[in-house]
Amino acid sequence: MENDIYAKARADLQAWRERQPTNFFTENRQLGRLTRRFLGEDGWARHRAHLERFGAVAAGPLDAAAIENNRAGNEPKLDRWSPIGERLEAIAHHPSFQACGRHIYEDGEVIAAYGGDAPHARALALFFLSSHAGEAGHNCPVACTAGIVKALAAEGSEELKARYMPGLLTNRFEERLDGAQFLTEIQGGSDVGANGTRAEPDGEALGTTRWRIHGEKWFCSNADADLILMTARWGGPGTSGLGLFLVPRLLEDGSVNAFTIRRLKEKLGTRSMASGEIDFHGAVAYAVGPVERGFKTVITQVIHTSRLYNTMATGANAQRAYFVAKAYAETREAFGKVIGDFPLVAEMIASLRGVTGAITAAGMTLARGLDRLEAGGLDEAEHAWLRVATNLAKMRSSQHSHRAVLTAIETLGGNGAIETFSVLPRLLRDNVVCENWEGTHNTLVAQTLRDFGRLRLHEGFLAVLRRDLLTGVASVDAATAPARAAVEHVADALHAVLAEKDPDVATFMLRPHAERLADAMFASAWAQDVAREEDAARRDAEAEALGWFVDQHVAATPPTRDGSQAARAARVAALPA
Length: 577
Ligand SMILES: Cc1cc2nc3c(=O)[nH]c(=O)nc-3n(C[C@H](O)[C@H](O)[C@H](O)COP(=O)(O)OP(=O)(O)OC[C@H]3O[C@@H](n4cnc5c(N)ncnc54)[C@H](O)[C@@H]3O)c2cc1C
What we know:
Layout: H1 2-18, H2 29-69, E1 77-81, E2 87-92, H3 95-107, H4 119-131, H5 136-155, H6 158-169, E3 179-182, E4 198-205, E5 208-221, E6 227-233, E7 242-248, E8 259-264, E9 275-287, H7 294-331, E10 333-334, E11 337-338, H8 343-374, H9 380-411, H10 424-436, H11 441-453, H12 457-468, H13 474-499, H14 503-530, H15 536-553, H16 563-574
Parallel strand pairs: 3-6
Antiparallel strand pairs: 1-2, 4-5, 5-9, 6-7, 7-9, 8-9, 10-11
Helix pairs in contact: 1-7, 2-3, 2-4, 2-8, 4-7, 4-8, 5-6, 5-7, 7-8, 7-9, 7-10, 8-9, 8-14, 8-15, 8-16, 9-10, 9-11, 9-12, 9-14, 11-14, 13-14, 13-15, 14-15, 15-16
The structure holds flavin-adenine dinucleotide (FAD).
Flavin-adenine dinucleotide (FAD) is lined by residues 180-184, 188-191, 219-221, 267, 270, 275, 433, 436-438, 440, 442-443, 446, 507.
């Protein structure tokens, strides 16, 4: 009898495991719908089979390799010297790191996608898929490499491009050149204008100016990257004196450039990625574009790209957490019924469903925005929207994903806290890091204030937001009605924020409004997406999930908690991805 009880519980857990997606692409209708829309029919015809294949790789062999790579003891290790005493400044990885890399770069073509059509939409859809495995050891380098590709394409000399682009864009893992981005110094990361690392001129090379870098960088992820993109001071104080430089790991004679890795950080999360502290002792560097434009280039081409990658990585954390928790709620029993039948559990799954729908739609819409920007297809208001929405999405997606992973852990009860039981503990740790790098929440709010105050970007941003919150589809527009009201409320409140003379106080005033605007923006992107759903029943069901998200995060007052609200939670929880 006792054995029967245990066997039944174990069979339920086995059923939970069997319910996990075997393909992160084909089992996510929304992602397919968005990708098809943003690749266009021709692009969809060309790339669909690949997306489907990679969705299976991400859910299968990549996920298994990521588990191995993140196992305690398999973390990267600093390997400074060769056996015969040559300086290496290298990182030794567990073989599962290489296995992950082959899946991501070769099966996934996550960087090679930049050599093709609709590059951002395709690359970020592929990155979203790979990020379901939570393989931070590669996610961060992929985001940095994408930033280097963009910066070189926009500002690099022809010789720099000719030398490095083929290696950056190859889909051969072993032959690839991967990237890192070093801005942060010990005296401060948010205040990049306080950078002290110096660049000294050293003639001309590769169609640009050559420089020598002296100083130290405090947070250096992907510490042995082939190509480092970094800020350093060539001129006076503040950000205007910062240039943007490409520092190759190896010099022409094959020796290691003049930098030393002091140590690797012992981190809360993203442990499979080596983050170090690095000293530069006159390292050879090449200017990417005119040094006077360095800071502008790093923000527009590099940091904004990384922020979008951060949105997609945290969105994938939430999506994975949703898959894990939904299947658990459908299979785990307590008090004689599956736990998903309790309205409180249904509410947890519904909130996960809302957040994943919102971030996926916003992330893919931003990726499409970058493609349109580079094709010259954005008007002024849309350009303002893209800049503001990228910053707000980075802040809010990581906050939502943090809560989503915690909610999934709560759904699994004690099992949720166990490292060997599911991916959730690792996703939670990694998500905390994603909240901080590429701009803390406060920094993003301060940036948004400057964009609103100095550049008046709120005007274009609000115009696009109002436009996109209306779709002409009744069920969708009903769902977003509280968001439209919230936007008008924030638009009114912005007058007082922008009239405040003290920028620190104004930032303080803006923060809750910025979070609300971000959520309204998520809702608008999802509204535009779900309005295009061809299956009317699915469209209305997804509009209900959208309405759930809006009521939870944007509406002025939450709906009354009664039986009909509990039934609504159950319907939203039951809706597949
Ligand atoms: C694991 C990991 C890897 C990293 N890898 C890299 C990397 O590869 N390259 C790189 O360049 N950086 C990297 N970073 C650094 C990261 O980008 C910085 O930590 C981040 O930008 C914040 O800078 P800081 O740590 O110096 O915090 P600080 O700037 O000191 O901020 C501390 C606190 O003060 C707040 N604050 C600062 N300014 C304001 C303001 N104006 N208004 C209100 N509040 C404010 C911040 O929001 C934060 O809460 C990494 C960080 C981590 C954790």
